[in-house]
Structure formats: structure tokens, C-alpha cells
Amino acid sequence: MYLASRRGNSHSSDPVTDSGLGSFAPSSPRTRHVSNAIELHGLGVRYKALAALDGIDLEIRQGEFFSLLGPSGCGKTTTLNIIGGFIEPDEGEVLIDGTVVNKIPPYRRPVNTVFQSYALFPHMTVAQNVGFGLRMAGVAAASIQQRTREALGLVSLVDFGARRPDQLSGGQQQRVALARALVNRPSVLLLDEPLGALDLKLRKQMQAELTRIQREVGITFIYVTHDQDEAMTMSDRIAVMNRGRVVQVGTPQEIYESPSSLFVADFIGASNVLRGQIVESRGPWSLIRLDSGEVVRVPASPAHEHGSRVWVVVRPDHMSLAEGATESPDLNVLEGVVRKVSFLGTHHQYAIGTAQGAQITVVDPLSSPDRRPVKPVMEGAVSVTWPASASLCFKDDEAEALAPRSLART
Length: 410
Ligand SMILES: Nc1ncnc2c1ncn2[C@@H]1O[C@H](COP(=O)(O)OP(=O)(O)OP(=O)(O)O)[C@@H](O)[C@H]1O
Ligand SMILES: [Mg+2]
Hints:
CATH topology of the largest domain: Rossmann fold
Order of helices and strands: HEEEHEEEHHHEHEHEEHHEEEEEEEEEE
Bound molecules: adenosine-5'-triphosphate, magnesium ion
CATH class of the largest domain: Alpha Beta
Number of helices: 9
Number of strands: 20
Strand content: 25-35%
CATH architecture of the largest domain: 3-Layer(aba) Sandwich
Number of domains: 2
Shape: elongated
Distance between the termini: 54 Å
Helix content: 10-25%
Strand order of the largest sheet: 6-7-8-3-9-10
Largest sheet: 6 strands, mixed
Structural class: alpha+beta
CATH superfamily of the largest domain: P-loop containing nucleotide triphosphate hydrolases
């Protein structure tokens, strides 16, 4: 396996590896356990009145594909730059492979960065670009050639070594940048929106390629994106960030199915967001009177106080359409009218207007026709149903952090 066998080897005589953290480890009195590739403890960064980072704590495991996901300005790049050593935090500690690295400069950390702008040297060939770092580190020519070839093989560009960057497509240039970052065998690769400049098709292709490469080399990838689909597709775990803080860490499934706040529910995946007030909490269910007048049920929680203002969140794929459905303790029903039907290849999407003016989105996969006992027609009356257990409920005090992209509101 390429590269992976070298991870954790801090006593190599290779000058490139030795310029990494390995040479620091023995002299550092602060070496800790090494199960995590990266640990961030209480990171804080201030720009005048702005807290760009406000107490970031994260543990990223060896070999993980870990994504930082959040809206523009939430602190993703700042966090990555602190790990890379380009920014020194005002507060907190950064550990790489168990060693505190706050005072270690970027070029001595076993970490490489791939930026959105590929930053290739235009006058050098692809092979010279990839081998540049090794040349600077004084690696022998034969070894540079072999390792450059290996790295180009990894990104499927073995036959492109003699070309110049301007003779490559955007996706190929990005792969050269990736090969250049991998060739000196970092233990962690930082990627800051590396696919941002690519069109959608190439982006999808590179997502698959990056995932494959990460599995193959076994290096820890820390991947920054504000594209939730990208993070969900590629990551082992995701840290969702907002306003300089980590608001949830989990697998894509955990974050989608059990968002910890309204912000996360709204940012990850499509959501219908309904506004209401708790009017009763009894047995397994709490009853919410929506501002539009209807009453729906959500799973009860000790946090539910009578009279509290709340947001009820339901995923469009948890909703179904029916004709004249009647509610039951575990089934919520809202009456509406079909406003729009969209065919989206793998599923139908319906926009349903309720009598009170709210718009609800319902998604119906083509693969499950049994879920659709009714064939919705434009402007036809229809019932929207969903299991009460599929309702998420968040307190009002989380509303201020809401990202402005909900599908529906009442
Ligand atoms: N050098 C700086 N001086 C002042 N403010 C800064 C500086 N660098 C970053 N900031 C601010 O810190 C916050 C976090 O910035 P950061 O670049 O980490 O965001 P981001 O999550 O990477 O956003 P994007 O998705 O737009 O790249 C932003 O509000 C930004 O304006
Ligand atoms: Mg950024």
C-alpha cells in the first residue's frame, strides 16, 4: 500500500519525513497519547471585536476522513490554518500525533495543505511540480523520480508528467496539487474547499476520487467545505460549525437523523420547519399547536415546558401524501393543496400549500411507489402525513442561529 506503511515512523532517515514532527517528538516534554491524529483544545481566535473561533474542541482520529462543514465565515479556514501552523491561536492548544505543536512552524509539521486555488508553478512540468518539495528537502534524484511517479499514479496522471499545468484541465490540475501534497507523505492532509472551482460533474468525479485516494493511502484527511452534500458523501465524521464554534460532531447519518439543534437540522439536509407552541405534554407525545392552527405531535421530552415556543422540523422524505387521512396518536396530518410537482430523476418532489399559507415540501422516491397511495394532481386537495416519531422539536432560543435556507416556514 502506498504511503500508509510510513505513517507513524518518526525515526526515518528520510529528510522529508525528518523535517516533520518526528524530529520534534523526542525533545518535547509534552508528548501525550497518540490515538488521535489531531486534537484541538479550547481554540480561540479574535479579530478585534469578532471571535472568529470561540472555544473549538475537536478530536480527529488517525486515518479518518473528517470534514469541517458550516456556512461562510463560521471559522473553517481559520481552524485549518491553525492546524497547518499558518495562524497562531490566541487561546488553546493544537496537538498532532499527541504532541503540542503551537510553537512549531508550518514547514516542520507533518501536515500538508491543498488549497482551492491549485497554486501550481506554471513554468514547471507536472512532474517537477510534484517533486518540488522533495527537491528542496535534498532527496536523491532517483528517489524523487520514483516517488513522483507513485504520487502521479495515485491520482491517475502517470502519463502527464511532462506536461505543463496550462496543458491540463481544472480537474487534472487539482489532482496534480493533490499529488504534490501527498508526495512527502504527511500524516495529515488539510484540504480547503479543494473542489470549489470545478463544475458539478467534475466535482462529483473528484469527490469519488478523493475518497478512493484517502482509503488507499490511509492518511488523515481534514476536509473543509460549505457543501453539505459533499461532506455527507465523503466523510467518516463531520464537525458542523457555526459562528466560530463546533455545534455538533458525528457521522453523516447521526447528524442527519439526530441533529442537536435547529441550526444543524436546517443546515444539513432539507427540512420543513413549522413554528408552534407546546400545549400539552403527556405520555410519549408532546402536542404542539402550530401558529397556523393545526395540532401535531412530537416525541415527548423532559425539556418540553407547557407554553414554550418551539420549531418542529420534519424531513421531506419522512412525509407522505394521502387522500383524506385521519390523524392518530402516532400519525400527524396536515391538509393542503398541491402547488407544484417536480420530477427529479430519482424522486418526485411536491410543494404543498396549506390552508394557512405555509408551504411544505414532500419527497417521494420512485423506488417506493407503495408509499404513494395517491397520485397528486396540480391544485388537488391532499393530506400530508408523517409519523409523529419522525418530528424533531427545538426550543425557540436556538432560532437566532438559523441558517437562511429552510424550505418552509409557518
Ligand atoms: N485576517 C482577518 N482579519 C479579520 N477578520 C478575519 C481575518 N480572517 C478571517 N476573519 C474573519 O473570521 C471569520 C472566520 O473566517 P474563515 O475564513 O475561517 O471562515 P470560513 O468558514 O472559512 O468561510 P468561507 O466558507 O467563506 O471560506 C470570518 O468572519 C472572517 O471575516
Ligand atoms: Mg474558508
